[in-house]
Design brief:
Blueprint: H1 2-5, E1 8-13, H2 15-26, H3 28-39, H4 50-62, H5 66-79, H6 83-91, E2 101-107, E3 110-119, E4 127-133, E5 139-143, E6 152-155, E7 159-166, E8 178-179, H7 181-189, H8 195-204, E9 206-207, E10 210-217, E11 222-228, E12 233-235, E13 242-245, H9 259-277, H10 286-292, E14 305-313, E15 318-323, H11 328-331, E16 333-336
Parallel strand pairs: 1-4, 8-9
Antiparallel strand pairs: 2-3, 2-13, 3-14, 4-5, 5-6, 6-7, 7-10, 10-11, 11-12, 14-15, 15-16
Length: about 350
């Protein structure tokens, strides 16, 4: 795992100390990642133009919880980059839509989760960051080098969270605290130890966009798929020992439906039904990789491709991640990531 090990980083300390250490370690690699990400940013109608991006980035950063502001400041200092540039790199995520897929299933008493993260810059994402922030729950995050926020992670309490986009039928309520879903996910992973904790946090904080949130509690072997708008949430139920989700709502009303999303979810459900019908004999993580690497599930288009994939059993601490090659689920180098605690 020598090549993969170069992309697994562990930091401990205050948020500013962690950011500074990451910036120093990544150095020019962080600058190159930001340059490429900005150059290949979306150009669709909802995307920020360059002037708007520059104007809005720092005010947006200053609206974030202090813990994250501190890490951004340390990251910029450690890498020798202007804080403005680091803020722009993250602010652009406000207008990015993805097309991710996720699956969770129970086997032999344990829950396993599989996830494709689809994006527009293959090769930018492929790092594992272990963070031990003073006074908060340590986490493992999957994403870009230097990421302060992320869409996939698990914490030392064996709580797994990942975020998939969902069309949003409403907006944050006036006078209520609100955050982007991926910012909220990072905060919840450092402060929540159970699905109940997550649901309570969702009731306290509105979201800036819609999201589907996978929550897997490896200690209690419980899971939930939560469909969230800015102000509402609905928890999916299942008669099967598994559930799949893409980027449309199944129980939350008033949400726009996408045919491509429905097709990818239906394909995962068909594969899962056939897989579970032949128990025993399921091989993990291989058979869950097969689900998300399927031609009808993985994204391989010119605008969106699967940039990284993960399979995990939070209860046992087994984690698998793709390093290099795209689309990631079918062509990436699947490697185990050792549980650090």
């Amino acid at each position: 795992m020598s090549a993969a090990s170069d992309h697994v980083h562990r930091y401990a300390g205050t948020p500013r100390e962690i950011g500074r250490a990451a910036g120093r370690l990544l150095g020019s690699r962080l600058e190159q990642t930001i340059e490429r990400f900005m150059a290949e940013r979306p150009r669709h109608a909802r995307a920020l133009d360059l002037a708007e991006l520059r104007r809005g980035a720092l005010p947006w950063l200053r609206s974030l919880p202090q813990r994250f502001q501190d890490e951004f400041e340390g990251l910029a200092e450690g890498a020798g980059l202007p804080l403005q540039r680091v803020a722009e790199w993250n602010y652009i995520e406000v207008c990015i839509d993805d097309g991710c897929s996720g699956f969770v299933g129970r086997l032999d008493g344990h829950l396993w989760v599989a996830r494709n993260n689809d994006g527009f810059v293959p090769g930018a994402e492929g790092d594992v960051t272990i963070r031990e922030v003073a006074g908060r729950i340590p986490t493992i995050a999957f994403g870009m080098p230097g990421d302060v926020f992320y869409a996939t992670g698990v914490n030392r309490e064996r709580l797994w969270l990942h975020h998939q986009s969902l069309p949003n039928p409403d907006a944050p309520r006036s006078g209520r605290p609100h955050l982007p879903g991926w910012v909220l996910l990072a905060d919840m992973l450092e402060t929540c130890a159970s699905i109940g904790d997550v649901e309570a946090r969702l009731d306290e904080i509105d979201r800036d966009e819609g999201m589907i949130l996978f929550a897997v509690d490896g200690k209690r072997e419980e899971f939930a798929i939560l469909e969230c708008s800015s102000t509402r949430r609905a928890r999916r139920a299942s008669r099967e020992p598994w559930l799949a989700a893409t980027n449309h709502a199944c129980v939350l009303d008033g949400v726009e439906t996408d045919e491509g999303s429905c097709s990818r979810q239906a394909r995962m459900e068909a594969i899962a039904a056939a897989l579970y019908a032949r128990q025993p004999g399921i091989s993990l993580p291989h058979d869950f990789i097969t689900i998300i690497a399927d031609d009808g599930v993985e994204r391989r288009g010119p605008r969106l491709t699967t940039v990284y994939s993960t399979v995990a059993c939070p209860g046992s601490g087994e984690l698998w991640f793709t390093f290099g090659a795209f689309p990631a689920a079918s062509r990436g180098d699947w490697q185990p990531v050792p549980w650090p605690w």
